[in-house]
Every structure is written in structure tokens, then in C-alpha cells.
């Protein structure tokens, strides 16, 4: 497997806050560009540069709102500090109402080779329910523009909305597949604490409906040549997101920006979910035990179809999970079945009690 080392850059602002979102994102407000840039650059300079960088990911928030010269300065600082792989994947997240074709072209010219669009739905009513600012027309327009500009385009969609049936979701999925994108991130709606959806007591489909939606989605995506490779991610072969694979394979990564996390060997770093504290350079550093590191490897690795090595997992737990149909074993690796992905939390408990 490739040697992976990833850099994540978190941008904390969005045009407005979506009612389901619990990421560290705030409605945009005036900010001091000089102070921000200075902090990002200082953070870059602090990261050990002994490993070759295989991916750079601008996420958020809505990083497509960042001014181009600002992004350029951060990228320059990254290239100055790190040895960057010649096949580096450079991704940016964008929202349909926070980007246009000109900005996409500028990003491409800066070296971005992957764009992930926060489409979230291809149904006008669902877009309004999700509190998205863009219309279905804008969503479709942005996907077409992204295709005209980038080889590697991904869209995010959310399903398992209240009262959503398979037929309703399938219609959206068919519309999404008509774009023949190389990558799709398909998330089931979850209700996170302290979000407006939580306070409004929004009811998501029951476990049986959610299971059907998930398994039917896997089947449909598979038939379309974009199979599942991680519990929420589907791609044509060769278009798996290298950046996220770094997390799922338990490799090292560094994060800059408020709320960003890093894992460098056993060192875990956490930036504050607060812009002022981040600008002051505050961070929490802890050292993971080998047991905690192993737990992370299992927790993250089992999300992927490529599975994990069986080291440190008890044979009794493995055979019990095999009997339940949640995993299968081949050589020294175990692989989750689709049923195992449905039961992911129980599967992890079974293997790492
Ligand atoms: S645009 Fe994305 S990051 Fe921003 S509030 Fe909405 S879901 Fe959260």
C-alpha cells in the first residue's frame, strides 16, 4: 500500500449555518486576513516535514469562500515547507452558491486536481428542508462546470431524510448517476446534538428503513460501476479519495486551522474550536497509548471494504463476527460485508470489546 501522509486545512466560515451541521463552521463575518494567514503559516512551519506529502485537503466550513490569493499563499507555504509527492491529490470542498466557473478555473490553475461539491440533494423540496441556500438549477449547473474543469469531481448527497422512501431516494440517485462522476459521498442524515434539527426533534427513518436504503444504494451504485469503498463513499476504481484513505488506514496526518486535528505517530494534536484561541496558537497535545492507537486503526479501518490486518484482534471475536455474517477473513486480513457495514458499531464492539 502507498505511503500516505496528509495535510488538512480547515476554513471555518460558511455563508450561513445549515440546520443539521455540527462541523466547526460559522456564518461568515469580517476577519483579519493578515492574522489568519500568519497563523496558518506558523502552523505549517511547526509540522515535522520528514514525510512526503501525498494529499492536501481544504475543507470546512466552505473553503471555496477563501480568496484566491489567500489560498495561493497557504499553498506556497506548504510547498516551501514539505516535500510534496508528484502525484499529490489536492482537493477543495465547495458549495454551489459559494463558487463559480471562474473560481474553479483559478483553483485549477493553483494546482487543485479534485473538487468536492456540497450538493446534498437533487430534489428542490429536500434542499429547502436541509436549509441549503442553492436551488436545484444551481446545483446542476455547478456540477456541469466542475466536470468541465476537473477530472476528479465528487458530490456529497444526504439521504435517509424523514419519510424518504427508497423510490424517492432512487430518483435522486439516478439523477446523480447521470453525471457519470468518478466519486460520490452519500451520507445518511444523522441528528447531532445542539443542532437546530436536534432541537426541533426531527425524526429520521427507523433502522429497518435505513438498512434498506443503505443496501439498495450499495447495489445501485455497484451496478453503475461506482462501487462502495467506504461506508459512505463510492468511486470508480482509482478515484478513491486518497486524503480520506490516509485517515481510514491509520496513517499520519496534520491539520491546520481552527478545530483541525493531527495524528503524528502516537502524538495527537487538537486545535481549539474557537477562532480567537486558535489565533493565539493554543492546541491540546496528548500522547496516545498503543492500545488507543490500535483501537483507532480498527475503528477507522473497518469502515473500508479493503478491511484491516487481524493483528491484535482475538480469534474468538473474529469467528463470532464471521458467524454473524459481518466480516470474512482472507489470509491475515478481515473485510466487512455489507451487513457488517450496516452493523458497524456492533461489529467494532464485537472485535474490540
Ligand atoms: S455548508 Fe457545510 S460546513 Fe457549512 S454549515 Fe452547511 S453543512 Fe456545515
Please write out the topology.
Blueprint lengths: L5 E6 L1 E2 L11 E2 L5 H14 L6 E8 L7 H14 L2 E11 L6 H10 L3 E7 L3 H6 L6 H14 L2 E8 L6 H12 L5 E6 L7 H4 L7 H17 L4 E3 L2 E3 L6 H7 L4 E4 L4 E4 L2 E4 L4 H5 L4 E4 L2 H12 L6 E2 L5 H9 L3 E4 L2 E4 L1 H5 L1 H8 L2
Parallel strand pairs: 1-4, 1-11, 2-3, 4-5, 5-6, 6-7, 7-8
Antiparallel strand pairs: 8-10, 9-10, 12-13, 13-14, 15-17, 16-17
The structure holds iron/sulfur cluster.
Stretches where pLDDT falls below 50 for ≥5 residues? none
CATH superfamily of the largest domain: Aldolase class I
**Radius of gyration over all CA atoms, rounded:** 20 Å
Classified by CATH, the class of the largest domain is Alpha Beta
What proportion of the residues form beta strands (DSSP E)?
15-25%
Number of helices: 14
Give the class from helix and strand content and strand pairing.
alpha/beta
Shape: globular
CATH architecture classification name of the largest domain:
Alpha-Beta Barrel
Main beta-sheet strand count, sense and barrel state: 9 strands, mixed
